[in-house]
Specification:
Blueprint lengths: L12 H15 L4 H8 L3 H8 L7 H11 L8 H12 L4 H8 L4 E6 L10 H14 L4 H17 L7 E7 H5 L5 H15 L4 E6 L13 E5 L5 E6 L4 E4 L2 H17 L3 H13 L3
Parallel strand pairs: 1-2, 2-3
Antiparallel strand pairs: 1-4, 4-5, 5-6
Helix pairs in contact: 2-3, 4-5, 7-8, 10-12
């Protein structure tokens, strides 16, 4: 075959995915146009997928499963895509997300950006687009990241929603993301979030200085059986912990953080001042 690019499936998860698409396609006697017609993607897209020039996405994985008749099987491309995505996430985070959707109480502390569960779609997209411009992810991955966040947020909308206690460093509301319009919408959403009956929102002001007990973001979950889980991460590493020797001191430090932070009323007032440009 002319201009056929051979890949080593062991060179990367993306190469393995593309090689398997090509293998299943050729086993059925289809060319790339045939598969394109069955998935509603272009033949150029199929070619780029098979040669690992484009990353797989969830929608395409589902279309491939339908085309090849492997929906819901252990060999499905949706399953492989999920394993690839989770493999690119920080250690412990996939398990944390599963627990987050079942927690009865969620405590969050964030520095620098609005916590993911409170981000508007426009704010989340602006952050993802920034990573695309820096070349750290591709546009398809940016869309998946925003979609994944929306899925996490949707899991918290249920008849008995979890209690959410959120403390944000003042830098979260003062760091502009996405321009004035995106930031104004985001800050307005925070005000609306604080008004919900199951939430508490506080800002940890700059002037608490060294009294701030955490130097990194941390999430604490309380499950229905009252067990607790802590998840903390740095730029390159995540850590999920169930041991009381870590979780209980973290919970105590969180209580100290809440005591040092502004009240919800004062926090909302500060957010409104920042949104209106008066502070």
């Amino acid at each position: 075959m002319v201009n056929r690019k051979e890949l080593n499936p062991e060179s990367s998860p993306r190469a393995a995915y593309g090689a398997r698409v090509r293998k299943l396609r050729e086993e059925r006697g289809w060319n790339q146009d045939d598969l394109a017609g069955r998935t509603e993607y272009s033949s150029q897209h199929i070619s780029a997928l098979e040669t690992a020039r484009k990353p797989p996405t969830l929608p395409l994985s589902r279309k491939l499963d339908l085309a090849f008749g492997i929906v819901g099987t252990p060999d499905s491309f949706e399953r492989e895509w999920g394993e690839m995505r989770h493999g690119s996430l920080l250690e412990g985070f996939p398990e944390y997300v599963g627990l987050e959707g079942r927690a009865v109480e969620i405590r969050l502390f964030e520095i620098g950006i609005i916590p993911g569960l409170l981000q508007t779609p426009a704010y989340a997209s602006a952050l993802a687009d920034g990573d695309v411009r820096r070349g750290t992810i591709e546009p398809e991955q940016a869309l998946e990241r925003v979609s994944f966040l929306a899925e996490r947020q949707a899991r918290l909308v249920r008849p008995r929603p979890p209690t959410m206690l959120v403390v944000m460093d003042e830098s979260c509301i003062r760091r502009p993301v996405g321009g004035a319009e995106v930031m104004s919408e985001q800050l307005q959403y925070l005000v609306s979030f604080a008004a919900l009956p199951n939430t508490m929102l506080q800002v940890a002001p700059y002037d608490i200085g060294e009294r701030r007990p955490f130097n990194l973001p941390i999430n604490l979950l309380t499950m229905s059986d009252r067990t607790m889980v802590a998840y903390a991460e740095s730029q390159a590493q995540g850590h999920l912990d169930r041991e009381n020797t870590f979780v209980l001191p973290a919970l105590s430090a969180y209580h100290q953080l809440q005591a040092e932070s502004l009240s919800q009323t004062a926090s909302v007032a500060m957010i409104e001042q920042v949104r209106k440009g008066t502070s």
